[in-house]
Write a structure and sequence with these properties.
Layout lengths: L20 E4 L5 H4 L3 H17 L6 E2 L7 E3 L2 E11 L2 E9 L19 E2 L2 H4 L7 H10 L13
Parallel strand pairs: 4-6
Antiparallel strand pairs: 1-5, 2-3, 3-4, 4-5
Length: 152
């Protein structure tokens, strides 16, 4: 399929990152902002829920052991983070309009009995270019004020 496999030390099991996804990997000192890892993950989920709502998509945080953001029984946003010495790495991937066939070759996030969806698949609205959606995600700032290092 043309995808490469990379091993990382973060939660979330296996996922796919590719074109037409909004990827956000904040590097934050949770100690400096007085936040625990679970609350950090919840804030990332809430940010993706807000992003989906901008396009009229009703998304929800997953049930226990189903981290991420869901539209019904399909995942629209994945989270895989690592916290080491209170510093975060990795983050989230929100499906704008990726080729969902890539997900057929893996068990996304280790959850075998659920599907994957995208913003395009859940809305009838004309979506802006991906960069606009990326900027909207960044502007939602899940943890208040922090520095964004943007790389294309």
């Amino acid at each position: 399929m043309g995808a490469e496999l990379h091993y990382t030390e973060r939660g979330g099991d296996i996922t796919f990152h590719g074109p037409r996804q909004a990827i956000l990997y904040p590097i934050i000192s949770l100690r400096d902002i007085g936040l625990g890892a679970r609350k950090y993950v919840e804030n990332l989920e809430h940010t993706m829920i807000e992003l989906a709502s901008l396009y009229g998509v009703q998304a929800n945080a997953g049930k226990p052991a189903q981290t991420g953001v869901w539209v019904g029984e399909k995942k629209i946003g994945a989270i895989g983070v690592r916290v080491s010495s209170g510093i975060t790495s990795h983050g989230l991937a929100f499906n704008i309009d990726p080729d969902l066939d890539y997900f057929k070759h893996i068990v996304p996030c280790g959850i075998a009995d659920k599907g994957v969806t995208s913003l395009r698949g859940e809305t009838r609205l004309a979506l802006p270019v991906d960069e606009v959606v990326h900027e909207q995600l960044v502007k939602l700032k899940p943890l208040g004020s922090w520095t964004i290092y943007w790389r294309k």
